[in-house]
């Protein structure tokens, strides 16, 4: 097994531990699809790895954009927390953990050249987890706001509202 596959397998195991510890598995089918994003991304990376895989991180050379973006997102998340009617402790906890993971990736690791590839993929994997947690929390907010605005209507019940004969 290639070292990239091992790195991503370890990160996937960590991801499942995060899902279980933060109880992210509680939700609807859309939230579960969001939780599969890292597994799909890592699977694609392992499948395409030929030992000389180039990610967009090495091309862009601005790895800290994620952290800066999350920090700039804090005022919006504060506003969202004020309007959020769900479990605020869980909502804020997920966001804080995402920021923690993102900040963790900004630590510069000085490793021997033969381990640089491993460090790069581990960093990219942790950033993917942080982004997925932010996406999950944004969807949590959207889902709770939608239920409040539409009176608890489900996605399947929204279609008749927008597709009536008078609209055609």
Descriptive notes:
The protein is mainly alpha-helical. It has helices at 3-21, 29-48, 56-60, 65-83, 88-104, 116-149, 155-162. Helix 2 runs antiparallel to helix 6. The protein is globular, with a radius of gyration of 19 Å.
Features:
single chain; 168 residues; mainly alpha
Largest sheet: none
Order of helices and strands: HHHHHHH
Distance between the termini: 56 Å
The number of helical runs is 7
Our estimate of the beta-strand percent is under 5%
Provide mean pLDDT, rounded: 79
What structural category characterises the helix and strand content? mainly alpha
Basic shape: globular
Instruction: Give Rg in angstroms.
Output: 19 Å
Residue ranges: pLDDT <50 for 5 or more in a row? Answer: 56-61, 159-168
Please give the number of β-strands.
0
Determine the fraction of residues in helical runs and give it as a percent range: over 70%
How many domains in all?
Answer: 1
Blueprint (SSEs and pairs):
Elements lengths: L2 H19 L7 H20 L7 H5 L4 H19 L4 H17 L11 H34 L5 H8 L6
Helix pairs in contact: 1-2, 1-6, 2-6, 4-5, 4-6, 5-6
């Amino acid at each position: 097994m290639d070292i990239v596959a091992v790195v991503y397998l370890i990160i996937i195991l960590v991801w499942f531990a995060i899902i279980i510890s933060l109880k992210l598995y509680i939700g609807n089918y859309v939230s579960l699809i969001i939780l599969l994003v890292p597994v799909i991304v890592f699977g694609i990376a392992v499948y395409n790895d030929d030992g000389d895989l180039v990610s967009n991180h090495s091309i862009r050379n601005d790895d800290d954009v994620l952290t800066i973006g999350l920090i700039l997102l804090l005022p919006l998340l504060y506003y969202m927390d004020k309007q959020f009617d769900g479990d605020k402790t869980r909502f804020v906890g997920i966001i804080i953990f995402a920021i923690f993971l993102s900040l963790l990736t900004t630590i510069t690791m000085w490793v021997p050249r033969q381990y640089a590839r491993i460090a790069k993929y581990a960093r990219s994997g942790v950033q993917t987890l942080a982004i997925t947690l932010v996406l999950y929390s944004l969807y949590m907010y959207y889902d709770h706001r939608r239920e409040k605005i539409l009176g608890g209507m489900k996605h399947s019940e929204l279609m008749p509202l927008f597709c009536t004969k008078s609209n055609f």
